[in-house]
Amino acid sequence: MAERSNRQQSESKKRKVNRLESKRLELLVTVVNRDKADFYQDLIQSYEVNMQMSMRAKGTASRQMLGLLGLEETAKAVIFSVIREDRVPDALAALEERFATIKGGGGIAYTVPMTSVIGVAMYGFLSNDERTVKEDMR
Amino acid sequence: MKNFDHELILCVVNAGFSDAVMDAAKAAGARGGTVINAHGTANKEAEVFFRITIQPEKELVMIIVPSALREAILHALYKEVGLNTPGQGIAFSMPVDNVVGIKNEHEDTEE
Lengths: 138, 111
Description:
Oligomer: heterodimer
Number of strands of chain A: 4
Strand content of chain B: 25-35%
Number of helices of chain A: 5
Helix content of chain B: 25-40%
Distance between the termini of chain B: 16 Å
Strand content of chain A: 15-25%
Shape of chain A: elongated
Order of helices and strands of chain B: EHEHEHEE
CATH topology of chain A: Alpha-Beta Plaits
CATH topology of chain B: Alpha-Beta Plaits
Largest sheet of chain B: 4 strands, antiparallel
Largest interface: A-B, 30 and 26 residues
CATH class of chain A: Alpha Beta
CATH architecture of chain B: 2-Layer Sandwich
Number of strands of chain B: 5
Structural class of chain B: alpha+beta
Shape of chain B: elongated
Strand order of the largest sheet of chain B: 2-3-1-4
Number of domains of chain A: 1
């Protein structure tokens, strides 16, 4: 009986350890000019991001302002990237730097915390955690 | 980088009403937004039962706002482009935990 309880305790400890080790995921949303979307996707991918979705969007600059600039609308791209929490500060710092320094490369980026994801393989893929892939499958 | 100072307001409206959304949001203090074309889905049986047709072409307007302005902007959206208006808008907010690229109040206002 005592042995069983010990085993249960050690199993629960193991589970706790596993839970502590797995990092949370965040959804990184980046809004940039459409012609710079590929550049920013490549940049974000270098921060261990395995899945990104990009979609066409338009900015909402006032018509008056656009008329003055001789433009009809502002073509934007919205990039959704799933990123591991511990990579967020570096990724955002890199984005912030590029927003400020690249001509026509301005934009905004923000993260929304994800609360759950189902499936070990899916979590491993999204978090770029190679430990979730079994040895014989590598 | 800022933490928890901003919120993301998402507003789903019938296609063509994103300008009305931005007008209402800007009047309440928002500065800029981004519009994505979207396709809505509705419960067909409910549409028949209630004799309401939901226009499937939608626009999704994303607006990052300072947390302090959230209530005022959501209220303005409800009033100007809410479900009882031709825009049939649904607006809600989400917490955002890191933001970069937002210019300060005195700089140019467009994203």
